[in-house]
Amino acid sequence: MKIRGVRGMYVVCEEHIEIAIDEFVNVYEVPPDIYILDKGFFSDWTSPNHYDMCDNPPKYLVV
Fold it and tell me: Which Pfam families does the entry link to (predicted)?
């Protein structure tokens, strides 16, 4: 299963977080930083309401 990310950024739900981490490590060979989207870390960026993996709302940003 492949998660489409944007230049090293994955926005995923709780169900798919492990897949996103694995793909990030496979591509970049370093562990990612993981942010919980509802914590409001990014004032100039709005997280998407959905993503192409499933219909669950996204919960994490993997970068």
Answer: YyzF
